Amino acid sequence: MAFCIFDTNNYYLSNPMILQKTMVASLILTASSAAVADVERIWWSPGQGEPLNESTDYANDSGLLRIYNESGAIDTKGHPFFEPLGSNGRACVTCHQPADGMSLSIDSVRQRWKATDGRDPLFAAIDGSDCPNLPQGEEKSHSLLLNYGLIRVPRPWPPQPYLGKPIEPQFTIDVVRDPTGCNTSKNYGLNAKEPAISVYRRPRPVANLKFITAVGFPFEPKDGLPLPINPKTGEPMSGNITADRRVWTIEEQTRDALRGHLEFSGVMPDEVIEEMVAFQMQIYAAQQFDFKGGDLTSDGAQGGPQYLAQADAGVLNSGRRLPMWTEFDAWLELLKNPSAEKFGHLTEEQKAFRLSVARGVMLFRNRTFLVKDSAGITDMGFGNPVRNDCNFCHNMTRTGMDVAPGQVDLGTTNEPFADPAPHLPLFKLTCKPGFAPHPHLGREVFTRDPGLALTTGRCKDIGKITIQNMRGLSARAPFFSNGLSEDIRGIVDYYVRRYQMNLTEQEKQDLTNLMSVL
Amino acid sequence: MVRLGVIIASLCFSIISFAQEGTREEVAFISCPVYRDVDAGPKSGCWLATERGSGVQYDVSAAKSKPLLGQAILVEGVVSPGNEKFCGGVTLEPVRVSLLDEECPEHVITADEYPSRVFSLPKDVMKPTNVPRDLPPPPYVDKTFSVLFHFNSSFLNYQYSEVLLEKIALYIKAAKPASVKVVGYAATKPYVVDGVDLREEKKTAKARADMVVLALTRLGVRQEIIRQTHQYRPQTIDHYANGLDEETKRRVDIIVEL
What's the rounded Cα separation, in Å, for the pair A316 and B119? Predict the structure, then answer.
């Protein structure tokens, strides 16, 4: 939960050793005038018009998240990212809040409902409610946003032309369960004048986009093809921007969000789009301070967003030579010699936490398990199953994206692996004769979100979702595209169940602690 | 089971190498894959497949593209005995595994006493995007390249196709040919293995050509110089790639004409 901010230009955490969660509020009151304690001020409203500093820290349950604005402070007054450009009063910042790692935490959503009695533009009928045809003043009409942080994403059916080519869907869709009523609605559902499938997804963070758009290799092995080329830049495009690869560039995503989420009509001038894109590309978000472990850039560690800004994106971290999370290599020395003099200044609690993070790093890199029935991983030549570790897929330097970009089916949306979710719609997708079935789930697939398949129309893509950037997790629960994991520990627990990882309680906590400091 | 040239002579490019290699035994059979959960690090597990006619269990782990549990496979390989200590089966290497439509029971067995091989990357892998690509030096001549596929598949296989296609695209960029002819093939002639006719579908020929053309254009080859066709009943390319001749019918030829 975000509950305070620090302008790090004025209030640097000069003595993080004493900073504890319970002390934050009193510290704020005695800090510089730029430190703000009013909970309501954490929420960034459209048109608020205050400067966004070069560096600002926001507290969450684990510590402090830092937003780093690489190009320096900006005046948000009149800035298109912060202004309500459409008809529903929202700005981009509405769903991409700095305190929430440029995403949207469930705590912020609930606070906003309470503070405005549900009248904040966040709860706009178009996608901030379960379906626009529901009575908008009622809390239950916004149940998916309030309970799971989910925004409605209506996808056209059949799919729009993709990369300039018409799509012939390889499957039919039946609505099996429709708790929101939107998929069977005559105005918004499959039989509407403009047929659509409503899926419900978490807002993806608008931060660290250098890594999201980076391409490590020009080939997409999951698709078996070189990546498409951006006609403007001549560079390959990653396709990692949205959960379902429906757009390929930040420009395209910005226009798509303006139309869909802000209900902007007309054509936004290119220079405005460019300003919005430039802003999005200069924002970095990462945890900077941990209440138990202390400063995440101390004693040689390279946590925090400034290191993200300095790093080259798209670099493969894999194998012993250059594995993931070298940010915390300096703390790995604790594993060998916890009594070393260089760690003598740490409290016992700090040392214990950092040891746990170090163990988490080693688990992430080295603990192998059988990855099975995960299309996008196990159907591209590695075999099903394939024994590997977390680093296998989460391999882009500093963020844990997949350097060979693309989407995978972890089972978070497809049955039989997805956890029960009676609040979400359930679709039956039936692969048509003449087309190959889903590689692991057969010709009939039950899913809460067909994911990439709604873009490509292919059976093999049912339930595939873009691998997420792993930084700033402590600020933006819940997790997975459909919000099924309410906290970081829930992510670990899901993987342990899904892939029978057989971790001890301590090992689960070690991975949780690692992810909390990213 | 079909023995493909039980003793095949002259599989190497010269008489000298033939004499050194001697004879080799090729096998082709349909089987249900079994995964032996041997752990020697990432990607180290063993894949076994039993030839039903003889009962011989082969180790097909050397296949570039591995099996999927629950799905029948066509195995085509060369017997390379002497390495049974690794996975518990007679090693096939080189070996190619193609996925078939038939379902199989899923079996994961324990490692028992068998070690596995530590995975190592192929020698020739794609370079990262930030590594500059050098164009091949002259002389430039008319040239035919071939990209191989699995049975009835148009999927461009990882850690094989991308490296080859990039080399082809770089050659085309350097040679500046008048035309590039892309010919997709499907092996539609009967090919009986274990009593099953494994002729490929005709549509696979076009699908393969489509994929290669799309790949080449994304790698910067101009669409205007590409001429795309497809054909059936191709001849094999003898002694190509790993020497498994039958698989060379499942291919796309890229004919660069200056």
Answer: 18
Q: Helices A348-366 & A505-516, crossing angle to 10 degrees?
A: 100
pTM: 0.92
Tokens of A363: 């688990």
Q: What is the CA radius of gyration of chain B?
A: 19
The number of beta carbons lying within 10 Å of the beta carbon of residue A436 is 16
Q: Which of A372, A380, A388 sits opposite B42 (nearest CB)?
A: A388
Task: Let me know the angle formed at the C-alpha of A337 by A322 and A330, rounded to the nearest 5 degrees.
Answer: 35
Task: State the angle between helix axes of A505-516 and A488-498 in degrees (0 to 180), rounded to the nearest 10.
Answer: 130
Q: Helices A250-260 and A270-281 meet at what angle, rounded to 10? A: 110
Q: Which of A456, A164, A209, A243 is nearest to B218 (CA)?
A: A164
Q: Confirm if A342 and A300 have CB atoms less than 8 A apart.
A: no
pLDDT digits (tens, 9 = 90+) for A435-467: 999 999 999 999 999 999 999 999 999 999 999
Count of alpha carbons within 13 angstroms of residue B250, beta-carbon side: 22
CB B170 within 8 A of CB B137: no
Residue ranges in chain B modelled with pLDDT below 50: 1-21
Burial class (CB in 10 A: 0-12, 13-18, 19+), B98: buried
Largest CA distance in chain B: 59
* Residue B51 near residue B27 (C-beta atoms within 8 A): yes
User: Does B44 touch chain A if contact means CB atoms closer than 8 Å?
Assistant: yes
Q: Taking Cα atoms as reference points, which of A470, A454, A451, A464 lies closest to residue A395?
A: A470
The rounded Cα A479 to chain-centroid distance in angstroms is 7
The angle formed by the CA atoms of residues A60, A63 and A64, to the nearest 5 degrees, is 80
| Contact by Cβ (8 Å): A169, A221 | no
Sort B94 into a burial class: Cβ within 10 Å, 0-12 / 13-18 / 19+. Answer: middle
Distance, in Å, from the CA atom of A136 to the CA atom of A124, rounded to the nearest integer, reads: 8
Judge contact between A398 and A311, C-beta under 8 A: yes
Q: Which two tokens stand for residue A435?
A: 């087309």
Residue B157's nearest CA partner among B112, B106, B212 is: B212
Residue of B149, B155, B221 to mutate for A, most A C-beta atoms under 10 A: B155
CA distance B45 to B39: 6
Q: Is the Cβ of A330 closer than 8 Å to some Cβ of chain B?
A: no
> Is the Cβ of A225 closer than 8 Å to some Cβ of chain B?
yes
ipTM score of complex? 0.89
Q: What is the distance between the alpha carbons of residues A512 and A100, in angstroms, rounded to a whole number? A: 18
Distance from the A221 Cα atom to the nearest Cα atom in chain B, whole angstroms: 6
- Are A217 and B128 a contacting pair at CB < 8 A? yes
DSSP per-residue letters across B4-22: SSSS----SSSHHHHHHH-
The pLDDT value recorded for residue A505 is 98
| Exposed/middle/buried for residue A1 (C-beta within 10 Å: 0-12, 13-18, 19+) | middle
Q: What percent of chain A has pLDDT over 90?
A: 89
At A188, list the tokens: 């918004």
Which residues from B are below 8 Å from A378, CB to CB? 68
As a whole-number percent, the residues of chain A with pLDDT over 70 amount to: 92
Task: Give the residue ranges of DSSP H helices in A162-246.
Answer: 209-212
Q: What is the CA radius of gyration of chain A?
A: 22
Rounded to an integer, what distance in angstroms lies between the CA atom of residue A52 and that of residue A490? 32
Query: Is B198 in the A-facing interface, judged by CB distances under 8 Å?
Result: no
Extract the tokens encoding B25.
Answer: 């035994």
User: Whole-angstrom Cα distance, residue B161 to residue B256?
Assistant: 18
